[in-house]
Design a protein that fits this description.
Blueprint: H1 33-52, H2 70-82, H3 92-96, H4 99-105
Length: 107
């Protein structure tokens, strides 16, 4: 499955909402499923930044704390699928502007 909206438009035609653009869950109704996915990816991009810039000198690359969690594994699985050739592809981090998520997967 490719990352597209309900009308089959690919990622190049999507609005690029950011996590901070959505303050309440009700506002997600105005976005396509693909755009909501981009909002979620932006959230995880920010979590990686916050966890790695928390002032303790720890740059471990995990979403929460200092070790791998189930959330990290789940995110890895989603990003791995996103990076498949029939989806966005291995350069999804550059296409979507999510460099920390690209490093998270190891590209």
């Amino acid at each position: 499955a490719t990352l597209c909206d309900g009308d089959g438009n690919g990622i190049a035609n999507l609005r690029r909402p950011r996590y901070e653009d959505v303050q309440r869950l009700e506002t997600l109704n105005e976005y396509s499923r693909a755009e909501v996915s981009l909002i979620a990816l932006d959230y995880f991009e920010r979590r990686l930044e916050e966890n790695n810039n928390n002032g303790n000198g720890n740059n471990n690359g995990w979403l929460v704390g200092n070790a791998c969690t189930y959330v990290d594994l789940g995110l890895f699985y989603i990003l791995f699928e996103l990076s498949e050739l029939d989806n966005v592809g291995p350069n999804f981090d550059k296409v979507l502007g999510l460099p920390r998520l690209g490093r998270f997967v190891g590209w």
